[in-house]
Each structure stands twice: as C-alpha cells, then as structure tokens.
Amino acid sequence: MKRNHTGWYKGDFHCHTVLSDGHERLSNQMAKADLMGLDFYSATEHNLVPATWVETDLLVICGTEITTIYGHANAFGLKKRPDNLDRVCAGDSREAFLDILGQLHAERSVISINHPFLVPWQWSCPDYPLDKVDCLEIINDPTYPNNHEANQKAVRLIDAMWNDGWQICGIGGSDTHALLHEWYTPESGPSIVGDPTTHVYSEGLSQNKILEALRKCHVFVTRYIEVSFCMRENGREVLPGDAMPEPGTFEAVFRFDNVREPIHLFVIRDGVRESLRLEFDFEYRRATASYRVSWSTDAYHWMRFGAEDEKGDCVFYANPVYCCEREHRFDTFGAAVDEIA
C-alpha cells in the first residue's frame, strides 16, 4: 500500500516501453507519468509480464497486453505469467487466445478489450461472451490518426452495452509507444502517458484496491481538462458505477478547469441524449454546470454524463449510475456491435 486514503487516483491503463515495441525507457516513462500527475501506471507490454521494475513513487499495476491477430486485451492484476502465453505468442489458434482470457478472468484478473474498432488491431472475436469482459477501452491514443472514428464508435458500443444492462467499465489508455518528439502528424501532439487519464475512486492506492474499484465502475476518464463533480441521490453522495435503488431526486454539479476550447456537456438517460448548459469563464478557462432530475426505480434505468470537443471527440466520460437489473437481449461482443451498426 503506497497511500491509504479514500479518494480519486489518476493513472493510465495502457502503455508501452522498450520492453516490447515502445521507444521510451522505463525510467523516462516513469518521469513523464510523474510530470502528468499520475498516481498509478499499468505495465501492459505485448505478451510480456515484467518480473522487475525501475524504482518509482507510482503504483505499478502488473499486467500484460495479450496481443493476437484476433484482437488485443489487457489483463490487470496478474500473479504469474499465463500458462498458455507461449501458444498465443506463436500465433496459435483463436481458441488459445480465448482460453487464456477465460483462464485469467476465472483467476480474478481484470480483462479489458482494447481499441475494439482500430483497424487493423480491432476486436475480431464476435462470439466472445460479455460476462467475461470487465472493461472496455473507450479512448485509445487520441493522437493516433485512425482513432477519431474508432474511439467514437467505442463510446457508442459501451452505451449500447449499458442500455442492455451490462455493467462494463469504460476506461482510457494512452497506448503510448513514442518519444516526446515523435508525433504522428504535425497537428496531433505527442502521444504521452496520461493522455487520456483514467480517474479511479479507491479506498487506497494499491493494486487490489484499484482493480476492485474498476469492477465497481467507480471510474471516469478525461483528456486535458480537469473535472470535479458531485452527484447525489436524495442527498446521498453517489459515484459513477453506483446503483441507486431508491426513487427520488438526483442532483449533480460539475466544474471543468483548463478548458482551452468549447466543450459540450450532455447526459444520456436510458440511451437518450440531452445537451446540458455550461457556463463558461474563458478568462479562467473554467466552466460549470448543474443538473437535477426525478429518479424512478420502477424498472432498469441508467444514466451517464460526458463531454465532447468541437470535433465530437470524448474529453470526459463518467461511468453510469443505474438501478435494478434487466434481462439481457444479447450476450456477446458481436451482438453488441450489431446494436450500433
């Protein structure tokens, strides 16, 4: 345990270094993560589980990016190198890939599907069961040229999953491979650890606590802007991912800092999007908003908040609150994709 207070912790769930196909040394990567104000860092090298790490004040979460021609998935909280990883590395069957994910999920590793629509590394296992998915990467390296539409589609996909009652946690990952001066285009900016930043509400800064918070969806994701908010159900504070079992009044207040260009705040309730009014103070690069609604518990309902820039790219994603359960209409990744086709 590196810190033991309950609160929001900032980190990155998808990064690469010279240990696999990244260009950055571990020590420099940790220095950049520290400069970005991160509290934790996930080691997700391709098909590799590091046995040691450089000295750092950050919490380093043990993981790997299981990398195949059928898709990429992060596994967090590994206790050892997966038994069948050699078969995956050798380009063995699709079944070997699915078997290793099932094994890790059964062992309580957290499984995240990465960049599900980023060609040519998109997820190509349509029959993969959603009850073995803990997280979906809804923002992957936003500086990569092909990720504009791919990330937008990933956000639509997770909305479809929540609309069907699947409580899958939306997270971000920089997927950084580059040095600071290595930009994809002159306009893209650097691909750097911490962009996007995933914020996790945890009872302490330890691997077990962070991963347990992921399972509860106590998470929001940002790009550059700083976001603080408070949500209450009948006066009781609630977090992203919480169930709200009591009918009554839901209230939320938001403050956005470091707002360098117009953003658009919205709420989605049961799949229906509504724009929310933001009060901007561009002198201080700040914006505020509030929201109030009656909350019913007569059936399954869900609600989430988000913000986009002028191009429609996500700059703020808060995992939904919800009530009740519903009978699923679909139970595989491919069927969920069909919902947004």
TrEMBL record:
InterPro entries, A to Z: PHP_domain, Pol/His_phosphatase_N, Pol/histidinol_Pase-like
Domain Polymerase/histidinol phosphatase N-terminal, chain residue ranges per copy: 11-70
Originating species: Collinsella aerofaciens
GO molecular function, one term: 5'-3' RNA exonuclease activity
The protein's name in its UniProt record: Polymerase/histidinol phosphatase N-terminal domain-containing protein
